[in-house]
Amino acid sequence: MKSRHPATLVTALTLATVLAACSQNDQQETDESDHGEHSAEEVSGEFNDADVEYVSGMIVHHEQAVEMSDILLAKDDVDTDVASLAEEIRDAQQPEIDQMVTWLQDWGHDPEDDHGTHGDHGNGHEGMMSDDDIADLEAAQGDEAARLFLEQMIVHHEGAVSMAEDHLADGKSPEALELSEEIISVQQAEIEQMEDLLENI
């Protein structure tokens, strides 16, 4: 047994060295991975005037979509599928508003200065509803409200898609360009969904 002790000790020391090296490598990989994830979450800092104009306008555009969804969801006797869609639109677009506000701040722009003066309905952003349109939606009930919401939101989404397509041609910010691609994909699919819902109301 004594003759095996030195070998056992060497083996143990070797194993400890290997494990320590592996642990160090794993920690380095973890640190690099964490650093990569952190970097991916940071705003690149690249942007141009087209990005600022687009994000400012899309904040207003999204705010109205959230408002329209809230109006519909406050009503009774609305088609459940339409109500579910309105909830999905609201839940998706509010976080995007928050993200875009953060981008403007990171770019050195005050969100209130950039879009606060454009808060009136129908301010010229594509697909925006007018004050009268919003009033009509507020006054409608039941199937009439569901139908009007769908008709208005289709136009609203079409405007957002058009804005996003223009931004893809002119923008610079990787984060904002990625959002534009997502808006086009998601809202075009929702337009098709809303057209199908209209046929059943």
From TrEMBL:
Keyword set includes Cytoplasm: no
Signal peptide (UniProt feature, chain positions): 1-20
Record keyword Lyase present: no
Entries under Pfam families matching the protein: DUF305
Highest taxon, organism lineage: Bacteria
Annotated segments matching region Disordered: 25-44
Domain DUF305: 51-198
Record PANTHER family: SLL0788 PROTEIN
Protein name: DUF305 domain-containing protein
